[in-house]
Amino acid sequence: MSRVPVLVVVGAGPRGTGLLERIAANAPELLAPDTGLDIHLVDPHPPGGGRIWRHAQSPLLRMNSMAEDVTMFTDERSTLLGPVRPGPSLAEWAAEPAAHRPYRPVEDPDVADELRTLAPTDFPTRRAQSAYLDWVLRRSAAELPQNVRLFLHRDTAWRLTGDPEGPQHVHLGGTVLRADRVVLALGHLDSAPGPETAATRAFAARHGRTYVPPAFTADADLDGLAPGEQVVVRGLGLAFVDLVALLTEGRGGRFVAHPCGGLRYLPSGREPVLHVGSRRGVPYHAKTDYRLRGPLPPLPRYFGPDTELPDGPLEFRRDLWPAMAKEIGFGYYHELFHGHPGRTAVPWEAFLAAYHPLDWYSPQREALVAAAVPDPDDRLDLERLDRPLAGLRVADPAELQRYLHGYLRADLDRRSDPRHSADLGAFHALLSLYGQLVRLLPRHPLTARSTAAELDGWWNGFFSFYASGPPGFRLDQLLALADAGLLHFLGPDVRVDLDERHGAFRASSPALPGHHVHGTALVDAFLPPPSLDRTADPLLHRLLDEGRIDEEHLTDPDGHTYRSGLIRTDPEARLLDPALGGRPHPRRTALGAPTTTRAPAAFARPRTDAPAFRQNDAVARRLLAELQKEA
C-alpha cells in the first residue's frame, strides 16, 4: 500500500477555506483513487471565518458588500484550469439554507434571525458572514473524495522545520505535524507599532494621553477614550467607520429616523467627541444600493492579459494608468449609454468607435465626451473623484462643516439614485483592473519608487476610496453624529502636531488657515501596513529569525529602495527561501494578503473572475500533482 502524503494548511480563515474548496474540486482528476491524502487545517480561531471573520465580535460591525455580492465559489466567468463548482452567494445561502447541503442550523439566534430576513441588497453583519464561511468550510470538507481525510486543529503553529528535500514539521502547542507540503494561508496580520509611531507613543506616555495606533478596529483597545473627551482621528476609511460604530451605538447611543428625513442620534452620554480628517478629508464613497440598468460591461477591454507594455521596469502612473483610466471610462460610459441613452447625444456604437483609438489624457477624448454627454455631471472626472477637496479654503469651522455636510449628502444622494448607475459601471471596471494587475505585475515589475508611491500607495488608496466604501446608512449616521455635536470634520491634508506646551494633539488642515483643534487623545483609524520584521505571528517571526523567509526589498538603479513588508513568493506562490539562495522552497507555499502576490481578497463578487479563486485553483492543482508523486 502506498504511503499517505500529508498537507498542512496553517490558517483556516477564508483563504484556507477557499484552498480547501479548490482541492475538493480538483482531487478527483489529479489524485488517483487508490492514493490517500491527509489534510490538516491549523488555526487558533474557528475554522471558516478565522480571526477576522470570527463570530466573537460586535454585532454592530458589518460588511461593506451587499449579501448578493459575496461568494466563495467559482462560476461561468472564472478562468481557471480546474472544474467550476458553482455555489450560493451569501444572499442565496441565507434565503434557502436547507437547499444547500450539508445543512446545520445557525446556533446564534440573533444571527439566525438576521439570515431569515436578509435581503440580497442588505449589508450583512460580520457575524452573518462568519456563519456563511463556516458553512462553506463544511461543504468543502463534505465534497472531499473518500480517499482524502481532513483534520482540524484549534491551535497555533509556532515553528516550521525540515530540509527542503525531506518532510516538513509544523510545531503546534503540544503536537508536531509531519507534512509533505505546507501552505501558509495566514490572512491579514498584526504587527508591533513601527518607528513612525514611536514619537507619538512616547508623547502620549509622557503626558498621560491616549494614543491608539493602527489596528484592526474590532481588536483595538478603545477603553481609554473617555466620555466627552476631545479625540483627534486620522483616517476616514473602513476602520474609521467601525470605530465610530463602536464608540456610539457600542456605548449605548441610538440612531432613530428623523421626521424630516435622514437620522437623528440619541446620545448615551458615554461618547467621546471626534475630530476627524485624512489626506482627502472625506469618508470613502458610499456603496451603491442599485443595480446596473444596462448589460454588464464586457471587461477587460483596454487593460487585460494582452495589454502591450514596454520592456524593463515600469512606472505605474506613466505606463499602466492611462490604459487603466480608459478601462474605467469604458465601464462608466458603457452603463451611461446603455442604461440612460436619453442623457447622451450620440449612439453608443458611434461613441465607442471614436473613443477606441484615443488616449485617455488626450484633448480629443475630452472633446468627444463633451459632445456626446451634454450634462457635465454625467461625465467621468477621475482627478476630481480622487481629490474632491483639492484647493478648498474656507473662512471658519462652521463653513467647513456646512461644506462637508453638503458633500456627504450629495454622495449619499448619488449613490442611492439609479440615475447615476454609470458609477456602478466604473466600479465593475475597477474590479476588473484589480484582477488584471495580479496577472500582469509578476511579468512586468514596477520600479521600487513606483511600487511604493503609486501601486501600494496611490492606487490602493484610490481603489479603496471609490470601490470599498461603507453602506450608505453609515454616512447618514455620520451626519447625525455631526448634528449632535459629536463629530467634526477637520478637512483635507490633515496634520497632527505633538503640542508639548499643552500636552495635546494639535490638528489642522490647509482648508482652514490659522485654525487648529486640540485633542487629548489620538486614534490612527487605519489598518497597520504589512511589516514582516514586526509581525506578531509567531511562525513567521521564527522563520524570519531563522533566515527562511524575507520581505520584498526593491532597489532601483539610482539606489532608491522600498521594503513593502510583504513575504516574498514566486508567481506560483512558493516561498522564496534566503537559505536556498532566494530560490523557491519546493515544499512551502504562502497565499494571501501578506505575500507579494498582492491578491488579498479571499472572497469576491460573483462573476468577476476573482484573482484569489484563480490562485487557489492553480495552487491546489500544483499541490495535488506534487502530492500524488509523493505517494
TrEMBL record:
<protein>
    <submittedName>
        <fullName>Adenylate cyclase</fullName>
    </submittedName>
</protein>
<dbReference type="InterPro" id="IPR052189">
    <property type="entry name" value="L-asp_N-monooxygenase_NS-form"/>
</dbReference>
<dbReference type="InterPro" id="IPR038732">
    <property type="entry name" value="HpyO/CreE_NAD-binding"/>
</dbReference>
<dbReference type="Pfam" id="PF13454">
    <property type="entry name" value="NAD_binding_9"/>
</dbReference>
<feature type="domain" description="FAD-dependent urate hydroxylase HpyO/Asp monooxygenase CreE-like FAD/NAD(P)-binding">
    <location>
        <begin position="8"/>
        <end position="188"/>
    </location>
</feature>
<feature type="compositionally biased region" description="Low complexity">
    <location>
        <begin position="589"/>
        <end position="610"/>
    </location>
</feature>
<feature type="region of interest" description="Disordered">
    <location>
        <begin position="579"/>
        <end position="610"/>
    </location>
</feature>
<dbReference type="InterPro" id="IPR036188">
    <property type="entry name" value="FAD/NAD-bd_sf"/>
</dbReference>
